[in-house]
Amino acid sequence: MRNHKLTTAAEAVSHIPSHSHVHLSSVASVPQVLIKALVERADAGDVEDLHFHHFHTEGEAPYSWPEYEGKFFEQGFFIAGNTRPGVDSGYADYTPVHLGETPLLYRSRAIDLGAALVQISLPDENGMVSLGTSVDCSPAAIAAARLVIGVINPNVPYSYGNLIPLDSFDYLVEDDTPLIEAIYHTPSQTDNLVGKNCAELIEDGSCIQMGIGALPNAVATQLIHHKNLGLHTEMFADGILKLIKAGVINGNVKNIDTNKVVASFLLGSQELYSFIDHNEAVLMKDIEYVNDIHTIASIDKMIAINSATEVDLTGQICADSIGTRIFSGTGGQLDFVKGATYSKGGKSITAFASRTAKGFSKICPVLKAGAGVVTPRADAHWIVTEWGSVNLTGRALQERAKLLISIAHPDDREMLDRAAFERFGPHYHNFSI
What we know:
Helices cover 26% and strands 20% of the residues. It is built from 14 helices and 25 strands. The strands form 6 sheets. The protein has an 8-stranded parallel beta sheet with strand order 1-10-8-6-2-3-4-5, with helices on both faces. Helix 6 packs across helix 7, helix 7 runs parallel beside helix 8 and helix 13 runs antiparallel to helix 14.
């Protein structure tokens, strides 16, 4: 049991030795006051070679900036827009891992944590605090790190599902920096068509998983007339909040965590953050529980909705990179793909617009050189674009090619058909689905 001490950010981070691996709570709840204090240490020449680990973060990320080369080195588990330039240029890096397995990296000391820096809520009457909007892998980090610093922030909501005793912390710092908010663009007409095609595959009483952004919000919009949906997902945003408030998502027929919304982190508006504060209907859980394949599979009619940067004609799904360029990360896609596949009545759906913003087909003859396969072809099932939906389950390669071409952009189908003919030979055109 630790004897925690209330102190300043500068004093707290002064105890982090050079060459340490450092965990950050992430997404909307990055401990900005501690990062600023570490920047001041670095500027003073007082620290070097700190390695940072976290899920995707919002806000400025000086731990990935070239001016701190040799002092900070970003090695995140998921790459976002704030760290992508550093990764692109080599001043930062990406650690490939299924997000559900990140706690194991800490507990096994594959990543030997010197420090864990997390934001926490105000304590309750029993001396327990919440990790608020970002539980992620922080419980494992707190347990494994040699030094644990908590930032008590009244803007962090008190969420249920994973409470931490104050005695878990070596140092406590007070700060009132608001949580970072994200307002998503209105879904495009294409997004709405993709969303409509996804919604048609989802039955009343299903339990859904999906991410954040314009496309997931479009799916949420199309679900407004569904009934008795459940939610078990890594993260959600305001599109899902609307479904909860409308009573569409209520968890009434979930066979585990009945009547509960389950997630591990959030990113959205202040309305979203306020909604989970002292709300017993929302469980913010450790990513190890949320992304556990066996837990996901035990939920009847589990629907996993994920996306892709490109899909080849055999069903290989790339979602973390554009060629050799790391764009995001493996995330929990395969965790939910596998879990939903084994769920009674479940479906795994990969949904995306048929073309990129620059007009290139996302359904490709082959993946770009260096592209990562996040979901192998053997795990590819429902594929959805604005042009329709197809199920690759149990389909051979030539069948898959014809099915995928049927939902590609019409202007790309001839090119894709020609590529399939070249790949599979003269009998391809004699083959029908």
